[in-house]
Automatic annotation (TrEMBL):
Gene Ontology MF annotations: FMN binding; oxidoreductase activity, acting on the CH-NH group of donors, NAD or NADP as acceptor
Domain Flavin reductase like span(s) in chain numbering: 18-173
PANTHER family xref list: BLR2425 PROTEIN, FLAVIN REDUCTASE LIKE DOMAIN-CONTAINING PROTEIN
UniProt-recorded name of the protein: Flavin reductase family protein
SUPFAM superfamilies: FMN-binding split barrel
Classification via Pfam families: Flavin_Reduct
InterPro entries named among the record's database cross-references: Flavin_Rdtase-like_dom (IPR002563), Split_barrel_FMN-bd (IPR012349)
Organism annotation: Halocynthiibacter halioticoli
SMART domains: Flavin_Reduct (SM00903)
Length: 201
């Protein structure tokens, strides 16, 4: 099968998300300039640089009460900070609960029963028991083609690692089974690892 996206694919559901998988999930916490807190998951997310450490995520839809984007991007525009919380398998239902397009005044921490703590280097909340949380300062927001497509880049200025996830000096992802986004309504979890050594040149 071959298709040109602008002409449609002819399948019951768009296969694009199912092709680019698995994707890590950024459970992003923010606070707006009035003190309203938000927590929402984004699966167009990844690390993009080591030194200094930087990450990116993309927001691809809009809410009527947020001027062409969603709460997370709107809050970051105001405050220029955000926190990326890593989602453990055991947190899947809470994460899913926070994915709704709620009114901007809704506090998803309270809605989903998520315990929160304060970040150390930025003015934002974080998920208290997340395996890891990355405190970020905005570097740039890039408008992408499409009505509500934005990519947000941030520099990581603080890192929280849950103590029980560190084994023999290594951040052990099998200790919490990170949740990954697949296509459609599907998710997966990381349980098994194997190693490969790069060839010496």
């Amino acid at each position: 099968m071959f298709y040109i996206p602008k002409n449609g694919h002819g399948l019951p559901h768009n296969p694009f998300n199912a092709v680019v998988t698995p994707r890590p999930i950024a459970w992003i916490s923010t606070r707006d300039s009035d003190g309203n807190e938000n927590l929402a998951p984004y699966s167009f997310f990844n690390a993009v640089a080591y030194e200094p450490p930087q990450i990116m995520f993309a927001s691809t839809s809009a809410k009527l009460d947020r001027d062409g984007t969603k709460d997370t991007v709107s809050n970051i525009r105001e405050t220029e900070v955000f926190c990326v919380n890593i989602v453990a398998y055991e947190m899947r239902d809470m994460m899913n609960k926070t994915s709704g397009a709620y009114p901007k005044e809704t506090n998803e921490f309270e809605l989903a029963g998520v315990e929160k703590s304060e970040c150390s280097e930025i003015n934002a909340p974080r998920v208290a028991n997340a395996p890891a949380s990355l405190e970020c300062k905005l570097t740039q927001i890039v408008k992408l083609p499409g009505e509500a497509n934005f990519t947000v880049f941030g520099e990581v200025v603080g890192v929280h690692l849950r103590d029980d996830c560190i084994k023999d000096g290594v951040f052990d992802v099998t200790s919490f089974s990170p949740l990954a986004r697949l296509g459609y309504r599907d998710y997966s979890r990381v349980e098994n690892l194997f190693s490969l050594t790069r060839p010496e040149v």
